[in-house]
Amino acid sequence: MEPIAQYVFVKPWPFWAGGLIIGLLVPLLYYFYNTPLGVSTGYGNLVKMIFPSRHLKWIRSKFADTWSWRVYFIAGIILGGFISSVFAGQAGFTLEMGQFTDAVGWPAIFIALYFFGGGVFLGLGARIAGGCTSGHSIHGIANLHLSSILATVMFLIGGIVAANLVRIVLLGGVG
Questions:
Q1: How do the domains of the chain map onto residue ranges?
Q2: pLDDT band of 64, cuts 50, 70, 90
């Protein structure tokens, strides 16, 4: 019998277990913090920590409380990924992304820049959309916010288009 850590940190969870935990987290955040679940605001807090004297309007107004629970939430996401890699016996830093890095054959610096650029665009899109995919798709749809439903549809369409463009342009075709 495998240790419990393998089931918690290494093996994929069934869809219903992850959904149940997220579904319970949303009302708990409302009860204790009166706030929706979202990740991009935590990155805004990190930007404010790194650049505290910036006079950007969105940093001054939205992130008055720099050390909010969202910073710890992001730290937990990173720590959870590290713990999972330790239990899987694969702890360490890597830029390997499986089929993608095998197909493009780029030097590590180009792969890092490619994903950094993608992260910048994700952050920009989250600011333009007024929240990230988790905030809109989990919290907004649950509250029947029309803007969140529309944003989620656009996220899905954009993801499908982007994934197919990467497959066609960088991975050499479809199928």
A1: 1-93, 101-175
A2: low
